[in-house]
């Protein structure tokens, strides 16, 4: 069983931590509740932080004379500058954070599909990220960032958790200041990194080869840049399948015809969106245990996050 580093996340406070939504309610998220046992959360409500009460009149994003404004219609209040100031101060002090879970469609925290109104009327013209959420995406594009609504989708949740836990591992390596720990990190994550970007994985391998005998600080700086670039986007199904097929090659002589056929059928169902990735991973994990393959046992690709977080039914 893999030992996991606890990720550190900033979360919208209304998602299971405090009844601070504009209407005085709290948002229930089964996924966030499950994750509380496996991660450290740091809740924040930007709207409350800038002085808006609980409950409060709703705010909205409006576009006026080419500018985006955060506005509270009932009070006729422009809170744009207050939100910008809080956002920059808060995010500018962040250190050692692996990800964010933010309130979906919120004018402050939303990362997608936030309504933008044309002028001061009720005409909606487009959508974008909220003021705080947009700043998070701009300042931390390499972190695991999602909203609680999108995390109801299994594939999005798989990708989010995989990224979150590899980032937590990398944070621990940076703190260790140990070349041996960096080498172990790269070795254990090699297949996972290959699924993201094979060329960058080779570049990372050359960096930790350290032919020029560089210091840890010099190495980690170069490694981090390419590592973050590699995990910026989740791997495509095709890339994951390439790694799955590479892994099954370790057992090709030991497996029966029917076992191979069953696995290939599962891979096809994953390719076609019928099965989630963890179904194929669990088949391979059973063979890793059966044939006691030490190299594959250490690969995070087969257990990227705690299995307790796998369940499909999340509301």
From TrEMBL:
It comes from the Archaea. Residues 190-306 form the DUF1722 domain. Signal peptide: none annotated. This is DUF1722 domain-containing protein.
